[in-house]
Inverse folding.
């Protein structure tokens, strides 16, 4: 089979998504122009999630290890795990967003979501600087447009502009860093770069290259000090888009960060840079979240803190810690999608995501309040929810890595202290939902479909927390 | 068999939370049934089993060497029995909760399930999971159904608990990593020779993390505010079993896992030459401080809240004696205080407060409660006597053993602790006098005017009577026949690492 045959084979899920996105545009713009906006949204979202699930099915049926184009694109168990996660998350975001009313162009919205997902899948699979960059740009450009999709909302435009300006700038830095790396090592393949850096001595130019790459990837995962876009984008972007940025995009970025770390860790400075980003993210994310009054911003700052925990695992850079980071990213993303869906439902009713909008949620919809409790307590790391287990596994893997001899124990203490602080702000939301009396006593309008999906996610979060062995079997340790 | 205490509680919690909505009477009876079932199982195991009994051992997370292991020794069985008593009494004293009843008992039983789990876990990961499960229900029980400054008290309690457990988690992760990451089984890890330098920092970290929940001075401040803010049943559980979780963790995890952490440092500062002496000193300060502060409180519930700090100081002092009799006494004191604190909080928070709607001792003194509410008066006399440590009740034998154990180890501290016990008599006496037996003519003060002196209080309900009888009987039985418990406790204590029984000498 030719190289192109292999290329096509490895890219089938991406191709399926592309075809689906084009099909959605055809259906929506060709046949549904006269239909109501709600009907168009349902059809487009259903088709979109159908496309994502088809890609997922293909992926599950053809799982295996493959390498094409001399190692530029790979697929193995952990890449497949990340891609499966991304596709599930996309399908969930689309299905939970069916009743969102932020756009008059549902077809374009769903098509762009699928394009962003294509970017995520590619990012997770790429092991070559150029392909990483192109895939990241495909992802980022789709997300910039999606952030601005609520065209009548000034906040949405602001969110998109901030996201775009920071994103464009950091992409430029990253490309600049990539060019230095190419100059130093003479290759764009990550494996070759690793070998070359391991034998090269430290030069200032290497350090500059590393820092520039860290800027670009730090922006994608919203790590301090490249996090400033996150709170505003989470706040202003349409809720499904914010959920996508917080979930699938994070999984893809962490997957590629693991791969890039495998290449750059031999050079002095990369681990240290990651640790600095991790430490400052944990401290700043958790402290800033304490004083927020908007639940989306709480989720944004908590996302920064979670990025800090995951960066710690990436810096440890062992097989066990890479596995732990991937698990962490996937389960964190799933939980966040659930939390954002609850925010969206409350927002639709109260018109705001302030803490007070959540008052009395347990009286207005006990099941919704229960799922919110599961999601937030999982984010806080309370057993028996999955958030506790992944934290435990990741910190244990950090302590068993070579890092433990130098920074490991201090950083783990910092991270655990940070997660102790985080309980306060998660409880602030839960206090409104469960303790405070409701301002309005009417029952909250929730569609059965939404509640069903949320319950499904919540039960998954609980079951994976009680039986984490399932996760470990699904994502074995691979190099 | 004992594993079913856990499943029963969690199952009952789910059942009540989801299927008893809007049917308060059903929720109450289901909760009572669940709690009685738990007590029945605990009692059965207590009277039929001896030695170390494995309960369950199943593979859980093979990749990390974590197993689902439950096992019970004498100490576990005693504390499981205590949990059974406290949970039944708690349900009985919450019979009058009429707001969001099914949620209340749902959280309540979830807490109970977590507590059973901690006392039975033989795997550290499992232990920690149950330990943290117990945190969240406490928060909601206090924040939703509590009284004075409930949201503040609840948040303070949750954060203190969570920070304490974060310290424990660091220690556990470190122990897991240092021992090679093969297992978290407590019995196996005890055999692992952790380096002494490692134990020297891991021990205080884990011990203090647990001691937060045990109410060790100066980390105790969550306890009085939390107890006061909590609804009666939650106060009973907090003081009765949750503080025991902390003390149990200190003994079962910190001390058995890192026994060399108790060794002398090799240098001393102001006469303090080891973590052992330092923690004993803090325990003694807690005994005296709790008693002294209880002496000047004007809120009846704060008196009991601070008395808990004082009594838990005795438990910690007992642990630090590192002798068989002291450890026996500490475990016995855990049981005794669990029962008596429950009784006192029930008297003050339910029987008196729900009728008089005040806990202010000055206001209560104008109500002539000894005549208008004689049941509460004689009950408090009995509970107070038991709490002071009068012979015949469980408190006496427990305190005696702790003090005998402490005498050989820390003579000076023992004298101070003795002073604390005397102050304990004084604050109980003062509270009793002011609340129930004030025969001075009522001053026409505002507080008195608002409640007529001859107010007819609601009669004592059957639920209250049953709860009182249950707890009093438990305390009396242990006081008269301490061997009931000691036959279980002593073999378990003797099975602890050798250095914990010989004052730290190998």
């Amino acid at each position: 089979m030719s190289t192109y045959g292999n290329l096509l084979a490895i890219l089938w899920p991406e191709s399926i998504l592309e075809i689906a996105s084009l099909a959605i545009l055809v259906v929506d713009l060709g046949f549904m122009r006269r239909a109501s906006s709600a009907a168009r949204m349902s059809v487009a979202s259903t088709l979109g999630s159908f496309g994502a699930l088809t890609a997922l099915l293909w992926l599950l049926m053809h799982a295996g290890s493959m390498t094409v184009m001399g190692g530029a694109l790979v697929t193995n168990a952990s890449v497949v795990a990340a891609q499966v996660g991304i596709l599930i998350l996309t399908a969930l975001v689309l299905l939970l967003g069916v009743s969102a009313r932020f756009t008059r162009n549902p077809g374009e919205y769903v098509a762009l979501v699928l394009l962003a997902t294509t970017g995520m899948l590619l990012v997770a699979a790429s092991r070559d600087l150029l392909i990483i960059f192109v895939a990241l740009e495909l992802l980022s450009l789709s997300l910039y447009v999606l952030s601005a999709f609520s065209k009548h909302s000034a906040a949405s435009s602001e969110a998109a502009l901030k996201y775009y300006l920071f994103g464009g700038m950091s992409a430029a830095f990253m490309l600049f860093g990539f060019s230095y790396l190419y100059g130093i090592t003479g290759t764009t393949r990550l494996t070759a770069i690793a070998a070359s850096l391991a034998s090269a001595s430290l030069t200032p130019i290497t350090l500059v290259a590393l820092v520039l790459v860290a800027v670009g990837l730090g922006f994608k995962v919203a790590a301090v000090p490249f996090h400033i876009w996150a709170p505003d984008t989470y706040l202003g972007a349409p809720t499904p888009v914010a959920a996508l940025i917080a979930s699938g995009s994070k999984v893809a970025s962490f997957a590629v960060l693991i791969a890039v770390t495998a290449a750059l860790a031999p050079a002095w400075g990369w681990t240290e840079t990651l640790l600095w980003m991790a430490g400052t993210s944990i401290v700043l994310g958790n402290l800033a979240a304490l004083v927020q009054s908007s639940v989306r911003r709480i989720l944004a700052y908590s996302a920064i803190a979670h990025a800090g925990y995951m960066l710690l695992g990436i810096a440890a850079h062992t097989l066990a810690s890479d596995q732990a980071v991937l698990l962490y990213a996937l389960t964190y993303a799933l939980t966040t999608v659930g939390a954002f869906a609850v925010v969206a439902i409350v927002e639709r009713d109260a018109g705001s995501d302030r803490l007070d909008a959540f008052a009395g949620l347990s009286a207005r919809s006990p099941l919704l309040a229960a799922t919110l409790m599961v999601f937030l307590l999982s984010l806080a790391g309370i057993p028996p929810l999955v958030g506790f287990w992944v934290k435990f596994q990741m910190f244990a893997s950090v302590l068993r890595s070579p890092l433990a001899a130098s920074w490991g124990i201090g950083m783990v203490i910092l991270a655990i202290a940070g997660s102790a602080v985080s309980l306060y702000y998660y409880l602030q939301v839960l206090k409104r939902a469960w303790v405070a009396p409701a301002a309005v006593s009417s029952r909250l309008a929730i569609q059965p479909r939404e509640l069903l999906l949320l319950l499904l996610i919540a039960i998954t979060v609980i079951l994976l927390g009680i039986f984490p062995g399932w996760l470990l079997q699904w994502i074995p340790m691979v190099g | 068999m004992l594993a079913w205490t856990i499943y029963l509680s969690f199952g009952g919690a789910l059942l009540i939370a989801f299927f008893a909505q809007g049917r308060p009477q059903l929720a109450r009876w289901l909760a009572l049934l669940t709690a009685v079932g738990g007590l029945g199982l605990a009692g059965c195991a207590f009277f039929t089993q001896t030695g170390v009994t494995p309960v369950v051992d199943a593979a859980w997370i093979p990749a990390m060497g974590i197993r689902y292991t439950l096992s019970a020794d004498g100490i576990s069985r005693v504390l499981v029995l205590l949990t059974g008593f406290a949970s039944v009494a708690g349900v009985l004293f919450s019979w009058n909760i009429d707001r969001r009843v099914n949620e209340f008992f749902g959280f309540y039983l979830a807490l109970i399930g977590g507590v059973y789990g901690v006392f039975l876990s033989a795997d550290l990961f499992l232990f920690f999971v149950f330990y943290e499960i117990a945190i969240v229900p406490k928060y909601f029980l206090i924040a939703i159904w509590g009284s004075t400054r409930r949201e503040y008290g609840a948040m303070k309690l949750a954060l203190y608990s969570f920070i304490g457990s974060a310290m424990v988690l660091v220690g556990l992760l470190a122990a897991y990593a240092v021992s090679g990451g093969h297992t978290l089984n407590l019995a196996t890890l005890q055999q692992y020779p952790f380096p002494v330098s490692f134990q020297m920092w891991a021990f205080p970290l884990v011990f203090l993390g647990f001691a937060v929940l045990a109410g060790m001075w100066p980390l105790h401040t969550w306890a009085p505010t939390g107890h006061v803010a909590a609804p009666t049943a939650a106060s009973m559980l907090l003081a009765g079993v949750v503080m025991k979780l902390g003390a149990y963790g200190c003994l079962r995890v910190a001390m058995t896992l890192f026994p060399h952490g108790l060794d002398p440092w090799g240098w001393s500062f102001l006469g303090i030459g080891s973590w052992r002496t330092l923690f004993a000193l803090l325990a003694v300060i807690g005994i005296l401080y709790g008693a002294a502060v209880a002496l000047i409180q004007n809120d009846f519930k704060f008196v009991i809240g601070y008395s808990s700090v004082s009594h838990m100081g005795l438990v910690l002092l007992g642990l630090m004696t590192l002798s068989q009799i002291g450890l026996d006494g500490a475990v016995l004191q855990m049981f005794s205080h669990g029962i008596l604190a429950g009784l006192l909080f029930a008297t003050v928070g339910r029987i008196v407060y729900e009728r008089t709607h005040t806990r202010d001792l000055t206001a209560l003194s104008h109500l002539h409660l000894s005549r208008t509410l004689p049941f509460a008066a004689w009950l408090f006399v009995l509970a107070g006597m038991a709490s002071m440590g009068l012979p015949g009740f469980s408190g006496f034998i427990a305190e005696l053993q702790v003090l005998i154990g402490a005498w050989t180890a820390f003579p000076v501290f023992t004298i101070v602790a003795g002073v604390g016990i005397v102050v304990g008599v004084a604050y109980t006496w003062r509270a009793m006098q002011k609340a129930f037996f004030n025969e001075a003519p009522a001053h026409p003060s505002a507080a008195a005017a608002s409640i007529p002196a001859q107010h007819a209080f609601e009669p004592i309900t059957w639920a209250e009577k049953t709860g009182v009888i249950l707890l009093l009987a438990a305390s009396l039985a242990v006081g008269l026949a301490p061997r009931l418990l000691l036959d279980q406790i002593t073999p378990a204590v003797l099975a602890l690492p050798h250095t914990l029984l010989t004052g730290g000498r190998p």
User: Anything to note?
Assistant: The interface with chain A takes residues 21, 60-64, 103, 125, 128-129, 132-133, 135-136, 139-140, 143-144, 151, 155, 158-159, 162-163, 165-166, 169-170, 173-174, 176-177, 181 of chain B (CB under 8 Å). Residues 317 and 454 of chain B are 46 Å apart (CA to CA). Confidence is low (pLDDT under 50) at residues 446-450 of chain B. Residues 324-356 of chain B form the longest helix (33 residues).
